[in-house]
């Protein structure tokens, strides 16, 4: 029972009195409504905008947030209202759902924002009313496609280690991945063009030098054309075999349309090679040469527009089928009428109904060759009706096809634009991320320098370094710091990381430079502070058994940070500088 | 033969031309098409709106309190924003309470019982008057209301055919999936039982006095009349 009509339940129960005189058995006892609570108004405060409704309105849907006791979590005792920190505009449609029982989707709302609101309030989107459901589904599909496109591009960017076969396949599918692929792409394109042009030029009659008649160029320069053809077919064969080798699923590749086109394009040549100049089969051989024209379809790999056209035609198959069917019907009708109308006139070209088909087709598509013309008056009247209706029948399905094409084309444009904007977007994201990481490192440095200055420096230096950070930032930094301590590793910026990795590579060689040892010291000092001792300190003379004074380790850490921040060249010189002060005032700093 | 074909086709062609010509003239408004209903159609759409009488009047006419009338009106107007219920909406609403069977026939009879002035729509006054009788009326009034429901043509007599219609409508609401399985003659048998009980003078019809008499003597019926008193 729909809760929208819950208000009519009393009426239905009252009307049941109409059954009473007819009934033979006693009726069951009615349930008693013990909660004689008065209906009260509830105030819902959504980001400052107050909505009020009856409690029973909300109770209609007990499995949503507002209808269940979940809303008690949002109850504000002082103001005696329920406060939600959400979008008040979207909340309107949600509250209307309780009131009317129908959920509507406002068109100006962003689909993902609306979905989030629905999820928050525990309402499933499937109950959106019929009036708005189509729009909702369309927008949702668009959004999903957009997200999918993004995901696919992310996948492309993954530079995981692919083996040779996979790299080759990727190079074939996406020529922009490497220069070699691009070269290959252009070379094949060039050869396709050459092959198509040769096929065309072959049939042009070349000027004959005092021969009996004009021969087509193909027969005059047989050798040259044969060479070009061979070269092209070689390239195509090699390309096909390489694609076959690289394809992840060979069976699926062989079944795909493009590979069939490839095969059909190069097969005539091989068949021609195999067959001798046999008279019987030369007719069939000529037919096979027609298939060479399919090479032009290989261009669809190179042209996005062609692919879109093909995809559009495929998706408009039903409209095209309808067009064909209605045209056929009209052709048959009009051909019959024209035939009988023109039957009487002498020397009429309309010798049979199939013969009239030609006239009808030519007229309906508004070609009007004029080789068949009606001569009687009736024939002329029906002929004009035929041409008028032809225009109409053809004009009807065409806009559907056009709009489909436009939609797919624009989708593609959007994808291209997004790819172009993606680079800018990624740069922005990277800058933002590195900004926050730098902020953390900076504040850490400042924090330690502050501590150092507290020990040794003057007041002014302290003021200089005191950088005001907001509470949020400092809490965030504290969190990152805790993470560092937990893992006994530290955050570094990119330069230092690359340098470190370089250095660890050099560590394989037995050049025992103190720099490396010092690099490992940050970890040691961290652990040192927490009490763990993995490796002995390279420079400190006290044995590992001695507890490292806190300040000393602090200074060491600071030195490590200095190293990290400063230029890589001077770090070797800095260490000796810092070392002596460590060893000397080791005692009096401890105080 | 060929000339006959020609003439026949020529005639058809001429007819076609004439028809097209007339249509073109109509388009240009030079020929009156004779369709005057279009204006009326537009007016009809805006006339369906109804506002009930004031709260005090309704309070006086019915036995509901102010608060109860408020609650009733809110529910009524929520489902029918235009203020009146037409039969289609009525059937829809009633059908939602009985999802298993077909409640449309019974809803039709119910609609007629509520529609006192027989204008094809139930306004809030009709609605609330009917409810007042059903929920707050005396047993006598309730029985009279039930009699009105059964008497489809409102001639003061319940015939067997009328009763059969009502019975079939009630059984239709049960739907197919019942236990024990509903048989074709069950409504008819039920009608026989009813007439045996009610029709005292065996003249094939039940008058209102017979009906009220008989019901007042039946304990079950009397008890069930009080069943829905505290619905609101």
Provide the spatial order of strands within the biggest beta sheet of chain B.
Answer: 1-2
The largest pleated sheet of chain B is described as: 2 strands, antiparallel
Q: What portion of the residues of chain B fall into strands of 2 or more residues?
A: 5-15%
Poorly predicted ranges of chain B (pLDDT <50, ≥5 residues)? none
Structural class of chain B: mainly alpha
Straight-line distance between termini of chain B: 85 Å
Measured distance between first and last alpha carbons of chain A? 82 Å
User: Treating each run of at least 4 consecutive H or I residues as one helix, how many helices of chain A?
Assistant: 24
Coarse morphology of chain A: flat
Uncertain segments of chain A are: 511-591
Shape of chain B: extended
**What is Rg of chain A?**
42 Å
In short, what is this structure?
The complex is a heterodimer of chains A (591) and B (232). In chain A, 64% of the residues lie in helices and 4% in strands. Chain A is mainly α and 591 residues long.
Give an account of the 3D structure.
The complex is a heterodimer of chains A (591) and B (232). Helices cover 64% and strands 4% of the residues of chain A. Chain A is built from 24 helices and 6 strands. Chain A has helices at 9-15, 55-58, 88-100, 111-120, 130-157, 164-173, 179-202, 217-220, 222-246, 250-255, 257-274, 279-290, 304-315, 317-342, 353-364, 377-395, 398-456, 459-465, 471-487, 494-506, 514-530, 550-565, 571-583, 586-590; strands at residues 41-46, 49-54, 75-76, 81-84, 205-206, 215-216. In chain A, helix 14 (317-342) runs antiparallel to helix 16 (377-395) and helix 22 (550-565) runs antiparallel to helix 23 (571-583). The longest helix of chain A is centred in the C-terminal third of the chain and has 59 residues, at 398-456. Chain A is flat. With 232 residues, chain B is mainly alpha-helical. Chain B contains 12 helices and 4 strands. In chain B, helix 6 (104-114) packs across helix 9. Chain B is extended and about 85 Å long. The mean pLDDT of chain B is 81. At the A-B interface, helix 1, helix 14 and helix 16 of A face helix 1, helix 4, helix 7, helix 8 and helix 9 of B.
């Amino acid at each position: 029972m729909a809760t929208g009509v819950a208000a009519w339940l009393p009426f239905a129960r009252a009307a049941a009195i109409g059954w009473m005189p007819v009934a033979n058995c006693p009726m069951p006892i009615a349930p008693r409504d013990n909660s004689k609570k008065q209906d009260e108004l509830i105030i819902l405060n959504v980001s400052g905008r107050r909505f009020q409704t009856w409690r029973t309105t909300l109770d209609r849907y007990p499995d949503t947030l507002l209808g269940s006791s979940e809303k008690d979590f949002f109850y504000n005792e002082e103001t005696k209202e329920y406060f939600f920190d959400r979008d008040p505009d979207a909340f309107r449609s949600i509250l209307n759902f309780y009131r009317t029982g129908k959920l509507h989707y406002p068109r100006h709302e962003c689909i993902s924002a609306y979905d989030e609101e629905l999820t928050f309030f525990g309402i499933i989107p499937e109950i959106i009313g019929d009036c708005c459901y189509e729009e909702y589904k369309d927008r949702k599909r668009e959004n999903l496609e957009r997200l999918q496109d993004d995901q696919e591009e992310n996948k492309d960017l993954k530079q995981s280690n692919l083996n040779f076969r996979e790299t080759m396949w990727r190079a074939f599918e996406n020529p922009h991945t490497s220069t070699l692929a691009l070269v290959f792409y252009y070379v094949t394109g060039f050869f396709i063009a050459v092959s198509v042009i040769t096929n065309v030029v072959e049939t042009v009659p070349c000027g004959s030098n005092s021969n009996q008649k004009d021969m087509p160029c193909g027969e005059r320069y047989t050798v040259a054309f044969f060479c070009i053809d061979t070269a092209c077919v070689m390239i195509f064969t090699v390309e096909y075999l390489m694609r076959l080798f690289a394809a992840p699923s060979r069976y699926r590749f062989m079944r795909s349309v493009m590979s069939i086109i490839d095969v059909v394009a190069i097969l005539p040549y091989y068949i021609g090679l195999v067959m001798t100049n046999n008279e019987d089969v030369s007719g069939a051989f000529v037919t096979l040469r027609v298939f060479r024209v399919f090479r032009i379809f290989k261009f669809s790999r190179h042209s996005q527009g062609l692919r879109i056209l093909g995809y559009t035609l495929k998706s408009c198959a039903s409209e095209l089928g309808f067009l064909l069917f209605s045209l056929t019907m009209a052709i048959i009708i009009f051909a019959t009428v024209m035939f009988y109308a023109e039957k009487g006139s002498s020397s009429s070209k309309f010798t049979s109904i199939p013969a009239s088909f030609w006239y009808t087709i030519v007229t309906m598509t508004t070609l009007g060759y004029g080789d068949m013309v009606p001569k009687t008056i009736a024939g002329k009247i029906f002929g004009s009706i035929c041409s008028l209706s032809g225009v109409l029948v053809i004009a009807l399905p065409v806009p559907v096809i056009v709009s489909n094409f436009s939609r797919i084309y624009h989708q593609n444009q959007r994808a291209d634009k997004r790819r172009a904007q993606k680079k800018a977007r990624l740069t922005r994201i990277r800058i933002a991320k590195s900004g926050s990481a730098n902020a953390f490192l900076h504040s850490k440095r400042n924090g330690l320098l502050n501590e150092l200055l507290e020990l040794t420096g003057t007041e002014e230096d302290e003021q200089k370094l005191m950088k005001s950070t907001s509470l949020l930032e400092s809490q965030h930094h504290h969190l990152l710091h805790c993470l560092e301590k937990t893992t006994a590793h530290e955050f570094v910026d990119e330069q230092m990381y690359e340098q470190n990795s370089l250095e660890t590579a050099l560590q394989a060689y037995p050049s025992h430079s103190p720099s490396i040892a010092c690099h490992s010291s940050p970890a040691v000092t961290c652990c040192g502070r927490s009490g763990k001792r993995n490796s002995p300190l390279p420079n400190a003379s006290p044995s590992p058994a001695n507890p490292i004074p806190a300040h000393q380790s602090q200074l060491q850490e600071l030195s490590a940070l200095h190293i990290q921040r400063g230029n890589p060249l001077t770090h070797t010189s800095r260490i000796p500088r810092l070392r002596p002060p460590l060893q000397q005032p080791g005692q009096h700093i401890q105080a | 033969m060929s000339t006959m074909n020609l003439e026949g086709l020529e005639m058809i062609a001429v007819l076609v031309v004439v028809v097209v010509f007339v249509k073109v003239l109509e388009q240009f408004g030079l020929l009156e098409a004779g369709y005057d209903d279009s204006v009326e159609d537009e007016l009809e759409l805006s006339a369906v709106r109804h506002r009930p009488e004031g709260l005090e009047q309704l309070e006086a006419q019915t036995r509901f309190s102010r608060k109860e009338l408020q609650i009733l009106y809110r529910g009524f107007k929520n489902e029918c924003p235009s203020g009146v219920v037409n039969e289609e909406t009525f059937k829809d609403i009633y059908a939602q309470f009985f999802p298993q069977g077909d409640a449309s026939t019974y809803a039709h009879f119910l609609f007629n019982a509520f529609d006192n002035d027989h204008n094809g729509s139930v306004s809030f006054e009709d609605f609330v008057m009917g409810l007042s009788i059903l929920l707050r009326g005396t047993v006598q009034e309730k029985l009279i209301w039930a009699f009105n429901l059964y008497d489809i043509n409102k001639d003061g007599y319940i015939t067997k055919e009328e009763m059969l219609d009502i019975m079939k409508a009630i059984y239709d609401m049960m739907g197919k999936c019942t236990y024990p399985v509903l048989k074709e003659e069950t409504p008819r048998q039920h009608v026989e039982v009813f007439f045996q009980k009610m029709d005292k003078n065996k003249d094939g019809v039940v008058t209102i006095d017979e009906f009220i008499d008989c019901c007042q003597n039946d304990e079950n019926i009397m008890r069930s009349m009080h069943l829905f008193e505290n619905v609101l």
